[in-house]
Amino acid sequence: MTESVRTFDAISDGVIQITVPVGQLQCNCTIIGDPVTREALVIDPGDEVSRILDLLGRHKLTVKAIVSTHAHIDHVGGLARLHSYTGAPVLMHRDDLPLYQAMDVQAAFLGVPPPPVTGVDHLLKEGDKLTWGRLEGQIIHTPGHTPGSVCLYLPSGEKKSDGTIEPDSETRASIVAVHAPKLFAGDTLFAGSIGRTDLWGGSMEQIMDSLRGKLLQLPDETLVYPGHGSFTTIGEERASNPFLIES
Length: 247
Description:
This protein is α/β, with parallel strands linked by helices and 247 residues long. 21% of the residues lie in helices and 28% in strands. β1 and β2 (27-33) form a beta hairpin. The radius of gyration is 17 Å and the shape is globular.
């Protein structure tokens, strides 16, 4: 399944953002790049590493880190291969290491061969700041979908762009203004739904605490990019998500 590209031109404040659904379960792998320094993060390389590498090369981006929002197989299946090709450090929350190390169990659950695994170079925790180029994001620990689920939050700010990006029929790509905060939510929050809690280490109580105590504290204008499906905003989910509407 592919979606048409939406391209937004930003004359000044901007960030390169490329999202490509990968693998059997169409995980949203996202590349976030600084259009001046061409340094980038890759979030959730679940599969199809050759496509991810092609996009990085096409836009002359150097990977500074690979961030796993959680260790489900559809989000980390390509992690080892991307690390091998780029040498970029792998970042994951400590509480998801057992899940990552049980990749054979996850693969058997889906009936697929287990992907290779790699070492984790940095263990993420609540409040960690990640910097690449002139960009900065903050880690929010949001347990519930998995014990070590995290979101990456980019607050609003002034960023100067001199880059361009070409449309591609197999990705959702843009240079987007960063006046609005951005949240890369993994499988914690979706448009109209939330992450499932019936898999290894899932907890409905924890995910609701993460959503209400952390994500719903963010500004309503925050753009939310989930691990699957289309983007939304915190305000939209606060108003219409059936899991979040106050009774």
